[in-house]
Specification:
Elements: H1 16-28, H2 32-43, H3 51-67, H4 71-84, H5 97-109, H6 111-120, H7 126-129, H8 134-138, H9 142-169, H10 189-222, H11 234-237
Amino acid sequence: MATPPAASSPTPPVDAATALERARAAYEYGEMEDVVESARLVAEGRLSATPAQRAQALRYLGIGLFLTSRREGAETAFFDLLRLRSSTRLDPTSTRPDVVAFFENVRRRHAAAIDEAAASRPGKSLALAFLPPAGQFQAGHKARGITLATLEGLSLASAVGTYLQLRSWAKYPGDTFGPPQGQLGADRTADARTLKAVNNVSVLVFATSVIVGIVDGVASYYAVEPEEQTQSLASVFGRGYKF
């Protein structure tokens, strides 16, 4: 069972996930004003969010505003949701009929604008999924993309740098790192052994980062973004309506 929203003013959420969790808990307990306030932080961009999180927030916000008799605000939230995801539906078997009817009315009255937004929105590219970290940024996973970009950049720079240094040392016959016996010259054999180990590790890290990035990018491309968790309002309305 979820913990009910605190009676006193809680600390403002610092990220979208926390705000949406608060909205979900408030929704479960019928605290519609808290639903609206928590969802608004994400829906209005005051907290950084992925497209899926913003869509979830707009849905919470629209329903919360509708259930608190603020229909103009609910219409704006639902309109923004449909412009973001024109295929969004509210399940009539688990959503209050008046909410569904209002939502579909918004869709009908703003059909032209919704279709225009859908047509102008760039689609996902499978090719980008094979080019980490582009696939991560495409999926809205900015932190993951930055991490992969950093790993790939540092490991590639290290691999190239150590390779070039090794080639500059390999000036002797047979690409050895020390002069033939009895001849003068710097013996880089020990240094080269260490540098080769660093080079091997760098190549391994780079290759692993690329492979992980590709797997994650393709998985994100084909992933069906989860609908928000639905919670019962039976304690408020006397029946198990959900999103």
